[in-house]
Amino acid sequence: MRLHFHRIFAIAIGLSVPVGIWIGAPVVETRADGRDAINAQRIDADAPGGGNAALNRQLKAALRVLGFTGTMEASLEGRLGRAVDRKLADLGRLLWFDTITGLNDDNSCGGCHSPTNGFGDTQSIAIGIDNNNLVGPNRTGPRNMRRTPIVINNVFYPNLMWNSRFASLSNDPFDNSAGFSFPPPEGLSLSHLDHLLQSQAFIPPTERNEVAGFDFPGDNFDIRAEVLNRLNAIPEYRRLFGHSFREVKDGAPITFDMFGRAIAEFEFTLAFTDAPLDRFARGEEGDGMSPGQKRGALLFFGKAGCVGCHAVSGASNEMFSDFRMHVLGVPQVAPAVTNSVFDGPGANEDFGLEQVTGNAADRYGFRTSPLRNLALQAAHMHNGCFLSIEDAVRHHLDVFASARAYSPGALDEDLRGPLGPIEPVLARVDPLLSAPIALSAEEFQDLVSFLREGLLDPRALPGNLMGLIPDRVPSGRPVMVFESPAALAANAAMDASRSPARVGAAEPAARSSEGEAVRLQNVGPLSARGPVWLELSAAQPGRGTVHVYDVAGRRVRTLADGEWLAAGTHPIVWDGRDERGSNVSRGIYFIRVQIGSAIADHRVARLD
């Protein structure tokens, strides 16, 4: 059989299910290297009969051939062979946010894997120890080497980390029969656990630049022993572990196997694979996919060639990654202050997989990033060098032009230093990206729309996941402060509203005072568990209203409604309750006062 390949559509992917989109019958041939290749023709949704019905038919056919079912989340407990233990998962949640597990006493899993960003990072490159107790864009401290990946859905990942150094040798995270592989000193010693995540949980507490710090002497085993000493010394942790492990209830010590199982069980609850594409694949009415997203999906699986690496079949578990190593020509970014050791003569390179294998042929190789819930990421690529999905897609479409023109000017100030050398990286670029991929402006927007909205499970949005942050943790230590994306956006809107450039623009959600005719200032802490005290200054008398709003602009409480206020200062007190007298949930709120046409807003944080 003779194949006439379209450049990027003939994709050799090494999966049991061949990948490609075509019009008419597929043409498949097994090549000499044993891998399937497909001759895929361009799908033109604008051709005659190319309306929404045609889009539906084409996308359904594509997903059927790919073996994409949209049922991955429903398969979880069947693959575990049991129900998820919610009690144990809640213990894992508390451990996730408790700095007691980090010997540097200032970071936890949640410091880098934040519910504000899909349990991924808020930074381009992670900030671990010696941080400012803040999780969000304003987090400060020495940088690590790479961006912290999202852990949502990692229960389905056959390997973990940017260099795949934690892996199930069976290529199935639920199967330990071939062993779970880790770098020394662990090696295969964690293979007795049932799932890869249970084994992987042994590692983060030992990472010096993430949570352990550099002062405690000893090796990984000594660090873990000290973490267990801490946990066993806290009666509440012993009580909670005793609820799930009878031996602890009977007086035995907490072990790291138990710790690993608790952390992993919490991660098992973070399966969010109910995106519009999943609902479409299941044939559900109201799947939520727009025609543009459907066209974008067809581009993803066809002309744009994305599925060549972001696979959805076989061992990928519909996670949009082949979980293999590729060189993508990513610009090399190194922080001004770091507690990691960068590679190369200028100490500004990241050799990727070579750091694990010691083989120079593996230099600059990184694992394909899974794309589910991509919209929740603050940055993209292994070093967070791109801050938007659009820029990350543009890079894939023309790697050489993008890399050579790249400037770090949009990154945080400490990441704007001289870039590492790019030509050695480009010399190793994956052949799938060796030539530019041409998309029209409309096609580009459709592809981005599919990636941003078509793969997003709305349950993973910050408004839902931030509810998992505990009010308190068993150690009694303070929980780090998490910056809400919605609150940050509202605050940015207020800042923008004060700029002269905003004159004549649409009215913002929050406004500053008009000519300082009315002003609000705090006379106590803005982050409070008790009442919030503010001082209102009015230049002129008048009838005033005082309301409390949440970040979505919903009125939560009326503190004053049409009362006559004399010129001068007045105290304003909010007890943190809504109109019904119930305590509001933790988060950011705005107190707004209006006297005549003058308005002032003040932001407060509730930590209850």
Structural notes for this entry:
This protein is of the alpha+beta class. It folds into 3 domains: 75-272 and 462-468, Cytochrome c-like domain (Cytochrome Bc1 Complex, Chain D, domain 2), CATH 1.10.760; 274-459, Orthogonal Bundle (Cytochrome Bc1 Complex, Chain D, domain 2), CATH 1.10.760.10; 485-606, Immunoglobulin-like (Sandwich). It is built from 19 helices and 17 strands. The chain has a 5-stranded mixed β-sheet, with helices on one face. Strands 4-5-6 form a 3-stranded antiparallel β-sheet. A 3-stranded antiparallel β-sheet has the order 10-12-15, with no helix packed on it. The longest helix has 15 residues, at 52-66. The protein is globular. The N and C termini lie far apart (69 Å).
Largest sheet: 5 strands, mixed
- According to CATH, the homologous superfamily of the largest domain is Cytochrome c-like domain
Our count of domains comes out at: 3
- The chain-level structural class is alpha+beta
State the name of the first-level CATH class of the largest domain.
Answer: Mainly Alpha
Shape: globular
* Number of strand elements: 17
Number of H/I helices: 19
What amount of the residues lies in strands?
Answer: 5-15%
Q: Mean of the pLDDT scores? A: 86
CATH topology label of the largest domain: Cytochrome Bc1 Complex, Chain D, domain 2
Radius of gyration: 26 Å
Strand arrangement, major sheet: 11-17-16-13-14
Q: So, CATH architecture of the largest domain?
A: Orthogonal Bundle
Poorly predicted sequence stretches spanning 5 or more consecutive residues:
1-49, 497-515
Q: Helical percent range? A: 25-40%
Distance between the termini: 69 Å
